[in-house]
């Protein structure tokens, strides 16, 4: 039986059918014994014929017998499915087999093609696998992993039998069982599957990777190929099952952002909307609607023409009349892949944006120039400036301000410096400008500290003075690529060319001017025509510091007298602020991790999260942080008892921490992992004063999931290597599950041989038998 | 024992066959005026020629009109019409017992003999009967009496096929017994010694007899449409054979054709009417066809 199993797909049929080969011979022998008797008169002629044809008849009879035996043999081989190459055997053999299915549940599997989706096709393959396996009970085991959370199998090492098939029929119904809106890590999934398979030493092992095989995930993925190779070397059969033959056209909203951190009531907020055409044909007249708190605004963004593979951006101004959180959406008409036809944005509209301007020279006018630039009319810019001396840094909580200007401050007391550094490290924005009060030695000691301080560079000994050369047409200020200069750049805008710089601190001797060579993340955003840096930007913790090596007021330069100064200051401030607290833009699956100061907040956290039917409320209880590891929240209330998604991104301690005064000690942490649905997530905290604070997070489908291009089979095979254990299948073609492919090349040959044998047998039978012509009689 | 003669004389066959006349191919001897030429006009004569009167001639036959014109005595000579003397020779050997479609060759041969007897007797021809196998079994003497039909039918019904065929001796005996020229009708399957058959036929012709040969062969013998494993048991101890008849059919038909061609050629050579008849065919159709053929031959000879 063993050798039969190695040769036949249906060894039992082969065994039972072996006897059939003798059937023609038996029939022949029976016919020799069982005959009818006829008394015949004209024996003379019959005997003559028999004598003349005896030898020929014998040969023909033997040939006919041989042909009939071969026909039975060929039929038997076809039915029993002769397979010369045992590696072609179908999945379900008589031996024990462990099937591990890794199914892609990323957002792109939601792409609809006709009446089905890649996800539904994938579930269909699993059900088909189970149904086929159930035909050989007690031999097949099944484990199903979701690629989004491979550490939590959907099914673990279950015997494949009829009850399981029935269970899967209800559990894997694509109507109720939906894929995620996230991007998945296939390498992680395959490694989890690999761990399961390699630990299972008994029997045959098969890995089925069911995915839509988007190019972005599979093209040229060497780690994946290596993982597959490792499995193949361990004699694991690998089946890559493609659930989508090719990508359909897809228009995706790939961008909706702007300087939302500077959004102020009554001040127009400029947002950038971008639509990318992921299809292969030009799309024209695309209209996107904008919704504010669920209400459609009169604004419609029209994209006249979008070339394939390109993103077209449009800017749109929104104005919010009152402060508070706004839920902004931009929507396209739904296509075959609707999850990227809407994009969410939460905007925290302030009544005014507080900006602190600290002037180190009480007699100076630098602060007034800056304040005038930022908030000559607070209603127009949305900024509210406060001018004070450096002492304010130790008197007021700095987190009250969205940005701090430090003008002509050469030195700070340690406590003020500490507050300032913590402010910036937590995401605050700091703009520094120099002046006569600045002494390089003290500045470097306080603000640079060998690169550990706030200053992007150490200052040289004394400011360098330039003589204005009226004959030169070369502008003194050369702006680099930076959002602060976005409007001012270009040939049509000559304002910056009119700026003259007379005095400028230069870097300390030995400080490398070239950003790339220096490689310390400090970026030079404006230079003097002599090549010396004029303005630099340095990331500091979660915040950012911008240093102007000249004065903010028209003392060492005439910039403040130039019209470009106001534009520059406003855009610089927006870029500084947007880089810090604009973290509310997230991708689905990213957990919400809150770290609360128990002195300020109770442990009650209420989340309003998107649901298929709208919003639903989840109440969580924060728990004390256990060392450096964060404990998951314990959901309270029925709403929170839903399945949680795995934490795919490491939680940042600063992430959305509302407490601005971390003083160490015990903190309350709470984590919400169920952030799969795109939309606006609202977190409501209760303060110890029993007031509530709300924060919104906009979750959108990862942009990568909009790239629906499917990797061609050839490329996939090339990426995965020419591995004999690896096979690629289409979801619609389930013949490989039924083993119909095994021995298919032999089947064709056998069929051809059978046809030839049948024809030969018919010809010989016809030749040996009697077929009178119609109406013909012998006379 | 009551004999049911009607099984040998199907009424419809008698009705159709009796409308025809059978004509002898040659003039044969007879002593009764037949109905040929003027069957229902009594002493009918047909003028042939004048001959000078010689002594002893019947004075009544002198043609006085010729005397008045020529002054010589002429007597009229008439073409004399006589009865047909027919001998029915029927084969009753064991091989005649074979039949595949409900009727054996023997039954069919007897029917042919009976119908022909009736027909000939109704024309006042003399008929005799000889049945044989390896020897003559029944012999009804030549007669044209009305009771002859009964005697012939009795003779036909007396014997059942049982023995071998010996045509050579039988035909020689028939030839010896029939000293006067007549019609010999042989009804047989001719499954016997071929040379003896030829010799006997030749002898009959040499004796001046007109010979008609009804070669009775069954459909199965002519077409050999057997199928499936079959054991053929030869009648008249001709052997046996187990075979797939379909595979041998070609050879069998070839052998049969050779044999029939040989017989046919022999009959043509000695001016013997030869006809293969099948028991599956209608008897009247067979005879009608045959008699039309005979009439055509006779008329062509008269002209």
Automatic annotation (TrEMBL), chain A:
The keyword Metal-binding does not apply. It comes from the Bacteria. Keywords: Membrane, Transmembrane, Transmembrane helix. It holds the Pfam family BatA. The keyword Nucleotide-binding does not apply. Residues 8-81 form the Aerotolerance regulator N-terminal domain. Residues 621-663 are annotated as: Disordered. The chain crosses the membrane at residues 12-30, 62-84. Signal peptide: none annotated. Residues 621-662 have a biased composition (Polar residues). InterPro entries: Aerotolerance_reg_N, Class_I_gatase-like, Double_TM_dom, Ig-like_fold. This is Aerotolerance regulator N-terminal domain-containing protein. Gene3D superfamilies: 3.40.50.880, Immunoglobulins.
């Amino acid at each position: 039986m063993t050798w039969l199993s190695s040769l036949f797909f249906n060894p039992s049929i082969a065994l039972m059918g072996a006897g059939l080969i003798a059937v023609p011979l038996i029939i022949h022998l029976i016919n020799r014994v069982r005959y009818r008797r006829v008394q015949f008169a004209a024996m003379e002629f019959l005997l003559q014929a028999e004598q003349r044809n005896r030898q020929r008849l014998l040969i023909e009879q033997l040939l006919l017998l041989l042909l009939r035996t071969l026909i039975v043999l060929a039929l038997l081989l076809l039915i029993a499915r002769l397979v010369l190459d045992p590696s072609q055997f179908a999945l379900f053999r008589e031996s024990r087999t462990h099937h591990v299915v890794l199914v892609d549940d990323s957002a792109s599997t939601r792409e609809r093609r006709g009446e089905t989706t890649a996800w539904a096709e994938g579930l269909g393959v699993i059900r088909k696998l189970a149904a086929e396996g159930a035909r050989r009970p007690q031999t097949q085991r099944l484990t199903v992993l979701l690629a989004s959370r491979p550490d939590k199998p959907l099914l673990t090492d279950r015997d494949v039998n009829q009850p399981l098939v029935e269970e899967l029929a209800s559990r894997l119904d694509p109507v109720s069982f939906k894929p995620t809106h996230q991007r998945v890590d296939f390498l992680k999934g395959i490694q989890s599957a690999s761990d399961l398979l390699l630990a299972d030493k008994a029997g045959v092992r098969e890995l089925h990777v069911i995915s839509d095989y988007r190019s972005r995930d599979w093209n040229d993925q060497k780690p994946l190929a290596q993982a597959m190779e490792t499995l193949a070397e361990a004699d694991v059969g690998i089946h890559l099952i493609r659930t989508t033959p090719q990508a359909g056209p897809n228009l995706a909203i790939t961008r909706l952002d702007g300087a939302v951190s500077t959004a102020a009531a009554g001040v127009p907020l400029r947002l950038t909307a971008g639509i990318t055409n992921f299809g292969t044909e030009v799309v024209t007249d695309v209209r996107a609607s904008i919704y504010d708190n669920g209400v459609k605004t009169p604004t419609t963004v029209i994209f006249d023409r979008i070339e394939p593979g390109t993103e077209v951006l449009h800017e749109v101004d929104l104005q919010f009349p009152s402060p508070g959180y706004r839920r902004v959406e931009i929507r396209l008409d739904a296509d075959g892949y609707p999850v990227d036809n809407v994009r969410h944005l939460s905007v925290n509209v302030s009544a005014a944006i507080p900006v602190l301007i600290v002037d180190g020279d009480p007699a100076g006018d630098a602060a007034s120039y800056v304040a005038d630039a930022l908030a000559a009319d607070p209603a127009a810019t949305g900024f509210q400036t406060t001018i004070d001396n450096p002492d304010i840094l130790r008197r007021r909580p700095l987190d009250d301000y969205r940005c701090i200007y430090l003008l002509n401050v050469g030195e700070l007391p340690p406590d003020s410096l500490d507050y300032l550094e913590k402010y910036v490290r937590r995401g605050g924005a700091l703009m520094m400008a120099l002046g006569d009060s600045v002494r390089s030695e003290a500045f470097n000691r306080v603000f640079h500290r060998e690169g550990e301080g706030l200053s992007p560079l150490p200052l040289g000994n004394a400011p360098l003075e330039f003589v204005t050369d009226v004959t030169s047409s070369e502008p003194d200020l050369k702006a680099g690529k930076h959002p602060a200069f976005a409007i001012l750049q270009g040939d049509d805008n000559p304002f910056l060319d009119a700026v003259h710089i007379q005095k400028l601190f230069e870097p300390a001797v030995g400080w490398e001017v070239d950003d790339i060579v220096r490689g310390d993340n400090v970026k030079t955003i404006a230079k003097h025509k002599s090549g010396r840096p004029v303005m630099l930007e340095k990331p500091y913790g979660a915040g950012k510091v911008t240093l102007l090596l000249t004065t903010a007021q028209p003392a060492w330069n005439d910039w403040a007298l130039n019209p470009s100064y106001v534009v520059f200051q406003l855009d610089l401030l927006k870029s500084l602020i947007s880089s810090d607290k604009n973290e509310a833009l997230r991708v689905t699956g990213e957990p919400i991790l809150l770290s609360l100061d128990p002195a300020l907040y109770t442990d009650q956290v209420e989340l309003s999260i998107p649901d298929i039917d709208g919003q639903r409320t989840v109440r969580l209880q924060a728990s004390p942080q256990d060392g450096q590891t964060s404990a998951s929240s314990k959901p309270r209330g029925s709403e929170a008892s839903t399945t949680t998604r795995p934490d795919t991104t490491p939680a940042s301690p600063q992430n959305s921490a509302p407490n601005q005064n971390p003083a160490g000690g015990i903190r309350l942490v709470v984590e919400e992992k169920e952030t799969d649905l795109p939309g606006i997530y609202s977190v409501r905290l209760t303060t110890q004063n029993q007031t509530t604070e709300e924060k919104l997070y906009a979750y959108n489908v990862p942009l990568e999931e909009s790239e629906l291009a499917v990797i061609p089979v050839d490329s996939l095979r090339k990426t995965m290597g020419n591995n004999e254990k690896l096979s690629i299948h289409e979801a619609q073609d389930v013949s490989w599950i039924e083993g119909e492919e095994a021995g298919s090349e032999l089947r064709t040959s056998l069929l051809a041989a059978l046809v030839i044998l049948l024809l030969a047998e018919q010809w010989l039978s016809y030749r040996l038998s009697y077929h009178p012509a119609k109406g013909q009689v012998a006379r | 024992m009551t004999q049911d003669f009607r099984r040998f004389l199907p009424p419809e066959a008698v009705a159709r066959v009796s409308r025809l006349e059978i004509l002898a191919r040659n003039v044969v001897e007879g002593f009764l005026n037949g109905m040929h030429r003027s069957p229902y006009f009594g002493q009918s004569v047909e003028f042939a020629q004048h001959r000078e009167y010689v002594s002893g001639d019947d004075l009544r036959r002198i043609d006085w009109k010729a005397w008045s014109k020529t002054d010589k005595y002429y007597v009229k000579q008439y073409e004399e019409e006589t009865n047909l003397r027919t001998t029915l020779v029927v084969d009753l050997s064991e091989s005649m017992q074979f039949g595949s479609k409900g009727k054996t060759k023997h039954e069919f041969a007897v029917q042919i003999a009976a119908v022909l007897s009736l027909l000939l007797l109704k024309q006042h021809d003399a008929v005799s009967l000889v049945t044989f196998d390896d020897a003559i079994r029944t012999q009804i003497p030549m007669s044209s009496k009305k009771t002859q039909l009964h005697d012939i039918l009795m003779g036909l019904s007396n014997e059942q096929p049982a023995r071998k065929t010996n045509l050579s001796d039988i035909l020689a005996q028939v030839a010896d017994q029939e000293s006067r020229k007549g019609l010999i009708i042989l009804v047989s399957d001719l499954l016997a010694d071929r040379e003896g058959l030829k010799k006997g036929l030749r002898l009959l012709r040499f004796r001046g007899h007109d010979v008609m040969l009804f070669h009775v062969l069954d459909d199965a013998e002519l077409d050999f449409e057997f199928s499936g494993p079959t054991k053929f048991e030869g009648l008249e101890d001709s052997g046996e054979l187990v075979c797939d008849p379909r595979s041998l059919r070609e050879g069998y038909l070839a052998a049969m054709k050779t044999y029939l061609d040989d017989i046919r050629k022999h009959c043509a050579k000695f001016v013997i009417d030869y006809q293969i008849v099948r028991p599956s065919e209608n008897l009247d159709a067979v005879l009608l066809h045959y008699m039309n053929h005979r009439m055509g031959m006779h008329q062509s000879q008269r002209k």
